[in-house]
Amino acid sequence: MNNQTLALTQEQRQIQTLAPQLRQSLELLQVPVLELRALIQKELQQNPVLEEKGGEAVSLDPQPDGDNHTDEKELNFKEEFEILMRLDKETHDYFLQQYEPFDADSEKKRNYALEVRAPEESLQEHLAKQLAFLELSDRDRRIGELIIGCINEEGYLIQGIEELAASAGYEPACLDDVLALIRDFDPVGVGARDLKECLLIQLQRFGHDSSLAMKIVSGHLDLMAAKNYGEIARTLNVTADEVQAAAKMIATLDPRPGLAFGSETAPYISPEIFVEKGEAGYYVVLNDEWIPRLRISKYYQQLMSDSQSTEEVKKYIMDKVKAGLFMMKSIEQRQRTLRRVASEIVKVQAEFFDSGIACLKPLTMAEVARQVGLHETTVCRCVANKFMKTPCGVFAMKYFFMPGLKTNDGRFVSNKAVRDLVGGMVAEEDSAHPLSDQEIFERLSAQGLQVARRTVAKYRLALKIPPSHMRKSG
Predict the structure, then answer these.
(1) Where does residue 255 rank: exposed (0-12), middle (13-18), buried (19+ CB within 10 A)?
(2) What are the strands, taking DSSP E only, across 12-75?
């Protein structure tokens, strides 16, 4: 075996790191206005040279009052800001991290990791993925999809097996067999008809088939809900302590297993862009009311000019002024970038504000980036978690970015517009003879839209429209 030794070596190489100022600038660009306000308030607490002045714009070049003489020791704020990025090299070593050498592919992956957030998976999607792994016949797979479509967001089967079998033309026994398979899926307890059945499925899966908890859930669930442990103990001939222990174990079960998927709390939305119409067309107005107006405190400006201030005090003030100026400049740059991107969106989607979703045009972030002279990832950060208030309602800025489908005459129509057409066709159909996916596909083709039949089925599922045989009535 070769001898192993420890040694110090020097290596020179180029690496790319994010400077602290750049990290802050990107964070301010990406966060919505309410989070931006919280970040500014935090900076106000941490940086004593910053202060808020209500009703005034962000001051990038504050000057002290009076006719004080400007000498070489007095701060020149514009000059300080211009050299701010160069001075970042002083702290470069502190933030140095071991990254792989830069190349275009790794940069693209890093940007993708920063920007892409996987959409939350719904319960139906989670169950459908598990169904796909089973080796089933075509009939059983269709039955499985039918049952999954009838499971609500809490994880319960909302239609009876006999009713489902009658509507789909299958024997109830066939549906019972497939339902038994689905009840083995994750989350545990899915596919139950009621709370009792849901808890029993979980107890069986967790190996409590012959436990006291199983007996309580099977026959005394109402007494347990009322916490009448004494009556349960007398009925089952056990001690009250045993009943309480079983009740604690039952309390660990999930009565609504489906809520772990696709459950969202309603967020508070404050639009950052107002779209208004003038004589020359639509234009954007920034909502600045949530953003505090900042300036450098005059007290610290005077303290910096005071000949009695020590060099240590001046250095401390200088560092805080640099941080404050960069925060103020970053806010201004954020608002300017947001206005440019929003103005380009409004210019492209002007017909949407007049005529609705049918006139929503295909648009990508790469196209907007080219028009406004920014990088695509900057546009992605800019529109993340931000909303526009338009004459048609409040929309997330990302709503206006959508690939399109090509028509026979060479035009492009957004996917949202096609999906809206599908929903309109179903809404106007004869309930006695509902449209099948094939018929919807043929109607779209007749309008010159080049869309596949499987795409029609995908749009129908996205609109939560059941298959044609389940929509039939009369």
Answers:
(1) middle
(2) 50-52
Nearest to 57 by CA among 294, 226, 327: 294
Q: pLDDT by residue (tens digit) across 333-352?
A: 999 999 999 999 999 888 88
Separation of alpha carbons 449 and 107, rounded Å: 37
**What domains sit in the chain, N to C, each tagged with a CATH number?**
123-260 (no CATH), 404-471 (1.10.10.60)
* Mean predicted confidence (pLDDT) in 197-223: 89
303: Cβ contacts below 8 Å, ≥ 6 apart: 309, 313, 317
| Residue 311 phi, psi (nearest 5) | -65, -35
What are the angstrom distances between the C-alpha of 66 and each of 63, 298, 307, 444, 466? 9, 11, 18, 73, 74
Per-residue pLDDT tens digits for 376-419: 888 888 888 899 999 888 888 888 887 666 566 656 566 677 77
Among 81, 67, 39, 61, which Cα is nearest to 295's?
61
What does the alpha-carbon distance between residue 441 and residue 452 come to, in Å, rounded to a whole number?
A: 7
Return the axis-axis angle of helices 453-462 and 415-427, rounded to nearest 10°.
80
